[in-house]
Amino acid sequence: MRAMGLDVGQRRIGVALSDPSGRLAYSRGTLRRSKLPKDLDELAAIASEEGVSLVVVGLPRNLDGTLGPQAERVQRFGALLAERLSLPVVYWDERLTTVAAQRELREAGVPARARRESVDAVAAAMILQGYLDYLANQELRSRGEVE
Fold first, then answer.
1. Pick from 102, 118, 124, 119: which is nearest to 56 by CA?
2. Between the CA of residue 102 and those of 32, 88, 117, 118, 120, what are the distances in Å?
């Protein structure tokens, strides 16, 4: 299973992909937001080119777990994307992934300007890796290998 992870913002969409086995996520880059049809077309091209069979979209929950206006926008975008790609779209809690991505880039010595350009892609990889780890854990549990 090849999965694509997205960190959908108002200005940029961070994109990540999994390896073909669906175990490891890596950043693919960032798309600058444009008109909705163009954004969907660009993501469809990536999905087709990479053989994606599942899309994981980061859902920006509030710290208390509730959904706010941005989460509702992301869900609408995800529904349109699912329709456009004819692929399943799942939502994964993205709370604090941007903060973690900024910290990771800062600790790696990435300059501030470059951090702004890549933080969404790193956050998308964190979102996708979280989901892939969850799937792997579920698989181990179903085989009785983890309690």
1. 124
2. 18, 29, 11, 9, 9
Q: In what order do the strands lie in the sheet with 89-93?
A: 25-32, 12-18, 3-8, 54-59, 89-93
User: What's the half-sphere exposure (Cβ side, CA atoms, 13 Å) at 54?
Assistant: 17
Nearest to 98, CA basis, from 121, 71, 123: 123
Closest CA to 101 of 66, 58, 48, 67: 58
Tens-digit pLDDT profile for residues 68-102: 999 999 999 999 999 999 999 999 998 878 778 88
pLDDT 10s digits, 5-50: 999 999 999 999 999 999 999 999 999 999 999 999 999 999 999 9
Question: pTM of the full predicted structure?
Answer: 0.90
| Angle subtended at Cα 40 by Cα 37 and Cα 42, rounded to the nearest 5 degrees | 110
CATH number for the region 3-142 comes to: 3.30.420.140
| 3 state DSSP class of 17 | strand
Question: Other C-beta atoms within 10 Å of 108: how many?
Answer: 9
Residue 116, both tokens: 């702004």
